[in-house]
Structures are given as C-alpha cells and as structure tokens.
Request: fold
Amino acid sequence: MAVEAPTAPAPEGRVLATLNADGSRRWLRPRLSRGRFLTARRATGYALMALFVALPLIRVNGSPAVLLDIAQRRFHLFGSTFFPTDTLLVAVLFIAAFLAIFAATALFGRVWCGWACPQTVYMEFLFRPIERLFEGAPGSARAKRPTPAALKGAKHAAFLVCSFALANVFLAYFVGVDDLRHWMSRSPAEHPGSFALMAAVTGMMMFDFAYFREQTCLVACPYGRIQSVMLDRHSLIVSYDRARGEPRGRLNRGGAPAGEISLRVVPQARGDCIDCAMCVTTCPTGIDIREGLQMECVGCAQCIDACDSVMDKIGKPRGLIGYASQAMREGAARSILRPRLALYPALVALLLGAFVYLLVTKPVAEAAILPRQGAPFYPLGDGEIGNQVRLRIVNRGADAATFGVTPSPEAAALGVRVVTDAEPPVLAPSETHTMGVVVVAPSGAFSERGALEITLVVSDGRGLAKPLNFRMLGPAGDAPRPRSEKEEHE
Reply:
C-alpha cells in the first residue's frame, strides 16, 4: 500500500505581494495616481537622474567627481583621491553615511526607498512610463485589451536601449568616462573583455527593470527587513487612519449617473473609507496599506495621492492615508525629541569631524618599502655592501612633484649612501611609481649578525620628508663574505 508523502500546510494569508495563491508570479501594473506627492517625487526623481548622469562627467581637481577605480585601487570623490591605505578614511565616511540613513529612517521612515533609491526612481519614472506608453495606462480601456506582439516587442526594445544607456552610466563610475568612450569607439573584437562586461551589465539592468522589477525591493533588498530596528512609534510613515476609516463600506450611489459618486450613504454608521481599493491598485509593491505597516511598503506616497483624490470627490477631508507616526494615529502629539534622534546626529557629526580631520592632515605623498627581491646583499668595491631597495611612491597632491631618496643624517654619518642610475621620478597627481635604488654602507658598519638599522628619507620638494625604516643586510663580522655561485647566478 503506497504511503502518501505529507504535504506542508498552506500558509495563512498572503505570503508575498507578487505571488498568487498557486505560487505563480503576480505581475503588478499599478495605476498612476496624480497628486502633490507624485509631482514632488517626479521632480526629485528626474533631478536625481540628471545628477547620476552628470557626476562622472564633472571634473574636480582634474579627476572625475566620482570614480571608483577598482582596477587601479583608487577612489576619486569630489576632488580627493583615496588609496588602499586610506581604508580608515573610507570606512569612517561610509559608516557616517549609513548612520545618516538610519537617522533619516527613524525620523521620516523609508523616505530613501520611496524618493531617492535608484531602483524606485528608474522603475517609476523611466520604465513604467515607457510601459504605459506602449500598453496603455492601467485601468484604461486600452490596457484591458491584449497588447499586440509588435508593441510588446517595441516596448522591450525601448527597455533594452534604456538598459544599455544605464549600463554605460553605471560603468562610468568604475572605469571613467574617457576609458568608456574609448571602448565605445572601438570594435568589440578589439576589446572582448570590456565588451563582455558591458553586455553583462546591460543584461542585468534589463533583467532587473523588465522582469524582476519590484521584487528587487521585496526579495533582494534587505532594507525592508531591518527597518524594524530603525523605526519606533514616533517615526513618520505612510499609514492608514483606522479610527477614522473603519468600519469601511462602499457608498450607495443612489441612482447617480455612471462614473459619479453620490454623497448619500447607507443609513448605518460607517467610516470614511469607502473600500474603493484605489490605495491597493496604485501601490507599486501591491500591498494594502490598510493592513498596517508592512515590510513591502517603500513609502512612495502613491496611496496618499490616490486616497486624497477619492476624499475630494466624496467631500471628506484629506488625510485618511497620510504621513503619520503610530503614536500620532493613537492621538499623541508628534515628537522628535527621543534618544535615538539625539544619538544618531551626534555620531554622524563625530564621524564627519574625524573624516575631515583625517582628510586635512593626510600627507601629500605616500612612500613605502616593498619586499626584497633577489639576493639580500652583495659586496662592492672598497669594502662596501649594497642592498637593492624598491620603493612605492604615490603623489597625493594636486600638482606634479619630483621625488628623491636620501639617507637620514644619522645614516649618512655611518657612511650610508643611496645610488641610482635613473633621474628622480616626476609624478603627476594621483600617479603611483615603483622606484629602485641601491643603498650602500661600509662593511664595518654592520653588526656581528650582519644587520644595520638605518632610515631613508623620501622628499618631494614641497616640504615632505617621509622617514622609512630599513634593515640593511650584510656579512656577519667586519669582512664582506664572498658571494656563492648560486648567488652569482641569481
């Protein structure tokens, strides 16, 4: 007798706004609800798009305003260049930025998600308008009819063009506008690696905005899941006034013409919510705000504009759905004086102060001794011992500079000198150079263990005097040791 495998119990209620009860994808086509918040968000969104495109093109101190050059391991941020040794500076800046977002969330809820996040901005103000252009606005007679295949193909072609443009702008932040222009002016056969990178980023953009869409916010982004630790009862969120709206019920049209709403309601007492579901059909993540604060709510205020327009039509005051804290909905006055709103700004100010101090006091150049290569030492004429030294020098200043290496006065007093066959290097701003020199010392200056601690000084003619400690290696005792055949071969 066959035994049936146990089945998991069906979940109670909705699991995800983009899933149907049978587990299939629920495609969202939110209505566009015009109002004061949509107008403000649209202006903000297009301004942010313009800024996103402009930042790689703007140059500050000869470098792009923002360039995250991972290949060269340097970040250019508004005139300052950060190298791998600036980990502390970058960490302080990013921690301050995250704390500022936490403070904004504690005060205004998910204002970042609904008003400034690139996913929301491009989805709502670029790709959805294109979709409405080809398929009609949701709720219209045109949208209810099947879209011809040619129009669907044209829509996806427009999506692909936009994805390609966004991929170029995105990559400009990591490779620079000049390199990107060079890529685009050459045949893909001449640079298959960079072409493949461009195609991959374009494909990811297309997948995100044409297929994955709002699921990026619901599934991939962790911000909604951690908002519970950033919000409190006094955080301003998009919320439904349950005391005013319940019990909800539809208006009695009372013979009013089609498309119009009569102000005459049924006799029994009801709240202001007429259960029109406009707040649901306009939500870009498909939730019902009347169920309370939910992880999927991005705070876009579309439901506010939709509800306000309905309240205007039925002669009720606006604000049934609006920006309000949980405490305000319970009758308390709005309060911004609470511990976390004092702690977050204080920490942000402290970190920004530390960042500015570290940035201002950052040296104009960087120098370091690289690990040895080849023989540790070799004898020279006149009883001297030579050590090969490689120096990595970085010019952090805004002007070109000439770098030189000399022994410290104490080392020079022992007879130490620096020998090089090349001219002192001239480094452009943000340029890195590996410099090779030979440090020479008398054999008698070494200890019995064959070591000599000295200091080399790197200077650039601008007041920089970077001391570098170096341990010279030589023969043990007073006499130089002859080199072996293996050392001669190396």
In short: The longest helix spans residues 149-175. Residues 255-267, 479-490 have pLDDT under 50 and may be disordered. The two ends are 79 Å apart (CA to CA). The first strand starts at residue 59 and ends at 60.
